[in-house]
């Protein structure tokens, strides 16, 4: 269980390369700059499933927003297949925790949205949408509007909506955090099923240790704010992984020990800022 | 009593009002010259609608007057809708434009539309244009303000999702902001059409020589209270139908909100 240093991708060819990434926000209430992430180097390999684990407020989402192109780094740069990322696009499919489905479109129309926007022909759109609906298990729900779907079903639509665009990388920001435990387990398995079929590069952000170990080829453990990489743990357990096995739990304990001091640091910082505010 | 069907329950109130009105004017509680009985009004309305033109001062002219009023309402409302939605989008979308335009809107808005009548008559004359102007101005505000609120309230996450799915920045308004603001826009349109019927009567009483408002004002000079009440009821029904029309469109456009 030796942790690897540095962020180089395991299988040679890197898809995402981040160098010296730093993102600073202005904290308006305290009139001072706060670094959300700092000195961040990372490579994500082609076909790799990378999970990022960290305490709340450690800048995990900031990192994802930069890769997605929603946010720009203060310093450093980030490239996808060698090209600097500076705006969002369908080559990076994002699945949000809050689903972010268009409430005025039904499930099939939500999935079709990106294809239609890019002028794909009606015949091809129908074909590809049907394919995705089948693969994420949405048959029979095509004409439901988002508010008529359960959380798990909404997240399936959100996943299908980005997969239909055939993205180079799948970015997921705590996508299952709002789901109940059973639905979450089902969705994790569904996600792995879809992912193993094509082995698409994936970045998955979570604060749940079991989820990080279950899904990732590597788990990046981040420090409390400012978010730096504390350690990268390669998960060598064979898939499908059994969360009840001794090996799984050994890995989980190890990752947990790495994270624990960071969670405490994050909590202490939160209390300190609450004290300062009062 | 509570178990009878809702339609019957909903007719009880109006029937009670009719009954009291009937008793009051038939048995002399009020002067029947000033408040004619419902049946008298109905007879006058019938004569006004279907009587032979020229047989009396208000014979067979209802459709002409109602047609003029409806024409002005929908003309003014259409102008107000176009300007209201466009300016509402601009104000709701751009911080800068909001800072520039919102103070003007907020100061002009509380001025009663009746205060604009002298200007309307001076600039547009005793013609349709005056009525269109007054109605469009009055209906503009609720439409623009509701549109702006809806546009400004577009969830930023939906804009991100759309950008991520390949929508170019100049298409965000059309693809995300407008559909997202649609419930607000329809609220504005319904308030606007209601106001348009109020204003058409004001405009016709003061700034033109036709329409239900003009008929009402004309009838007042001859103390034809039956015609005034008939005109009032006509406006009530026409206003109700126009609102229903917009509501039906809204229910179709906003069908995704059913059960929300």
How far is the N terminus from the C terminus of chain B?
31 Å
One letter per element, helices H and strands E, the order of chain A comes to: EEEHEEEHHHEHEHEEH
CATH fold-type name of the largest domain in chain B? MetI-like fold
Count of domain modules of chain B: 2
Strand order of the largest sheet of chain A: 6-7-8-3-9-10
Q: Which value, in Å, is the CA radius of gyration of chain B?
A: 23 Å
Q: What is the gyration radius of chain A calculated from CA atoms? A: 19 Å
The first-to-last residue Cα distance of chain A is 44 Å
CATH topology of the largest domain in chain A: Rossmann fold
Shape of chain A: globular
- Give unreliable regions of chain B as ranges: none
Label the CATH architecture of the largest domain in chain B.
Orthogonal Bundle
Can you characterise this structure?
The complex is a heterodimer of chains A (278) and B (260). By secondary structure, chain A is an alpha/beta fold. Chain A has helices spanning 60-68, 107-117, 122-135, 151-163, 181-198, 209-215, 246-277; strands at 14-27, 32-45, 49-53, 75-80, 83-84, 92-95, 169-173, 201-206, 218-222, 229-234. Chain A is globular and about 55 Å long. Chain A folds into two domains: 1-91 and 168-236, Rossmann fold (3-Layer(aba) Sandwich), CATH 3.40.50.300; 98-166, no CATH class. In chain A, a hairpin with a 4-residue loop joins strand 1 (14-27) and strand 2. In chain A, strands 6-7-8-3-9-10 form a six-stranded mixed β-sheet, sandwiched between helices. Chain B has 260 residues and is mostly helical. Chain B folds into two domains: 1-35, no CATH class; 42-257, MetI-like fold (Orthogonal Bundle), CATH 1.10.3720.10. Chain B has ten helices and no strands. Chain B has helices spanning 6-26, 38-50, 62-93, 95-108, 117-124, 128-152, 156-164, 172-206, 212-221, 225-253. In chain B, helix 3 (62-93) packs parallel to helix 6, helix 3 (62-93) packs across helix 9 (212-221) and helix 9 runs antiparallel to helix 10. The radius of gyration of chain B is 23 Å and the shape is globular. The A-B interface holds A 68-70, 87-90, 92-94, 96, 98, 100-106, 113-114, 117-118, 145, 147-148, 161-162, 165 and B 155, 157-158, 160-167, 171, 175-176, 179-180, 182, 254, 256-257, 259-260.
């Amino acid at each position: 269980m030796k942790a690897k240093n540095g962020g180089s991708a395991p299988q040679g060819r890197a898809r995402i390369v981040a160098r010296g990434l730093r993102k600073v926000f202005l904290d308006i209430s305290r009139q001072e700059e706060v670094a959300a992430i700092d000195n961040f180097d990372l490579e994500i390999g082609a076909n790799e499933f990378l999970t990022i684990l960290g305490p709340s407020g450690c800048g995990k989402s900031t990192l994802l927003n930069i890769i997605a192109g929603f946010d720009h780094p203060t310093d450093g740069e980030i490239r996808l297949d060698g090209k600097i990322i500076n705006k969002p696009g369908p080559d990076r499919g994002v699945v949000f925790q809050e689903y972010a489905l268009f409430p005025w479109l039904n499930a099939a129309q939500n999935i079709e949205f990106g294809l239609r926007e890019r002028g794909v022909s009606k015949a091809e759109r129908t074909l590809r949408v049907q394919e995705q609906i089948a693969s994420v298990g949405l048959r029979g729900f095509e004409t439901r509007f988002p508010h008529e779907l359960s959380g798990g079903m909404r997240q399936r639509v959100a996943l299908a909506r980005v997969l239909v665009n055939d993205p180079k990388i799948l970015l997921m920001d705590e996508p299952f955090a709002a789901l109940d435990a059973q639905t979450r387990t089902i969705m994790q398995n569904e996600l792995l099923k879809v992912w193993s079929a094509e082995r698409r590069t994936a970045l998955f952000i979570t604060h749940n240790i079991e989820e990080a170990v279950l899904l990732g080829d590597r788990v990046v453990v981040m420090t409390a704010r400012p978010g730096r990489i504390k350690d990268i743990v390669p998960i060598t357990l064979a898939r499908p992984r059994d969360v009840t096995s001794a090996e799984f739990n050994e890995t989980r304990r190890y990752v947990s020990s790495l994270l624990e001091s960071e969670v405490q640091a994050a909590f202490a910082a939160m209390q300190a800022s609450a004290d300062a505010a009062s | 009593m509570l178990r009878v069907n809702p339609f019957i329950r909903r007719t009880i109130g109006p029937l009670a009002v009719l009954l009291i009105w009937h008793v009051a004017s038939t048995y002399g509680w009020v002067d029947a010259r000033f408040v004619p009985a419902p049946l008298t009004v109905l007879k006058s309305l019938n004569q006004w609608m279907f009587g032979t033109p020229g047989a009396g001062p208000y014979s067979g002219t209802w459709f002409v007057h109602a047609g003029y009023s409806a024409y002005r309402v929908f003309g003014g409302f259409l102008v107000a809708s176009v300007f209201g939605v466009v300016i509402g989008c601009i104000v709701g979308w751009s911080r800068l434009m909001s800072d520039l335009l919102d103070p003007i809107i907020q100061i002009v808005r509380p001025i009663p539309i009746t205060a604009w009548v002298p200007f309307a008559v001076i600039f547009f004359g005793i013609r349709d244009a005056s009525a269109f102007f007054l109605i469009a101005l009055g209906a503009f505000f609720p439409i623009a303000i509701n549109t702006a609120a809806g546009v400004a309230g577009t969830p930023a996450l939906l804009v991100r999702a759309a950008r991520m799915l390949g929508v170019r920045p100049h298409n965000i308004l059309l693809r995300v902001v407008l559909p997202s603001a649609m419930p607000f826009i329809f609220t504005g349109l319904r308030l606007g059409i209601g106001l348009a019927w109020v204003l058409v009567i004001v405009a016709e009483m003061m700034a033109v020589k036709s329409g239900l408002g003009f008929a009402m004002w004309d009838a007042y000079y001859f103390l034809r209270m039956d015609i005034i009440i008939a005109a009032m009821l006509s406006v009530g029904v026409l206003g109700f139908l126009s609102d229903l029309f917009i509501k039906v469109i809204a229910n179709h456009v906003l069908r995704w909100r059913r059960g929300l």
